[in-house]
Amino acid sequence: MKSERRLYLMHDDEIITVFPVTFGSNPKGHKQQEGDGRTPEGLYQLDWKHSDSGYHKSIHISYPNAADQKKASEIGVEPGGAIMVHGQKNGWGWLAPLARYINWTDGCIALRNVDMDVFWSRVEPGTPIEIRP
């Protein structure tokens, strides 16, 4: 939940692990457009893994979905994209103890690298993710 700054890894409606996370720089509300600093809210999928990114591992969130694209089109903006669950920016992992208190991403969900390693090992492409306010 965004308001709790937590990511719950669940299996069969049971909480397996809870991770502290940070979000987009403008965390309140659903992502509306590219550059708004918001993290999407709603039901998506973790659809592919990226091991060679600018961050310590990343897993893509299927934003924007058809509803997001339609809404953006209706208001005349680009919805944005490349929303990920990821670790710290490469070379900056040492800042994780401080970075976890600041919403610093462009709309992604950021974990400490050690937490991202656990999350990465337990999540496969196609896993649903629900992002709540």
Report on the structure:
- The structure is a single chain.
- The protein has 133 residues and is an alpha+beta fold.
- The chain has a single domain, classed as L,D-transpeptidase catalytic domain-like (Beta Barrel), CATH 2.40.440.
- It is built from 3 helices and 7 strands, in the order ββββαβαβαβ.
- A 5-stranded mixed β-sheet has the order 6-5-4-3-7. A two-stranded antiparallel sheet has the order 1-2.
- The protein is globular, with a radius of gyration of 14 Å.
- The relative contact order is 0.28.
- The model has no long low-confidence stretch (mean pLDDT 91).
Total of DSSP H or I helical runs spanning 4+ residues? 3
What topology, given as strand order, has the largest sheet?
6-5-4-3-7
Mean pLDDT: 91
Structural class: alpha+beta
The CATH homology group name: L,D-transpeptidase catalytic domain-like
Q: What's the helical proportion of residues?
A: 10-25%
Task: Explain briefly what this protein structure is.
With 133 residues, the chain is of the alpha+beta class. It has helices spanning 66-75, 96-99, 113-122, and strands spanning 6-11, 14-20, 42-50, 58-61, 84-86, 109-110, 127-131.
Key traits:
133 residues, alpha+beta, L,D-transpeptidase catalytic domain-like, five-stranded mixed sheet, two-stranded antiparallel sheet, 3 helices, 7 strands, 18% helix, 27% strand
Topology:
Layout: E1 6-11, E2 14-20, E3 42-50, E4 58-61, H1 66-75, E5 84-86, H2 96-99, E6 109-110, H3 113-122, E7 127-131
Parallel strand pairs: 5-6
Antiparallel strand pairs: 1-2, 3-4, 3-7, 4-5
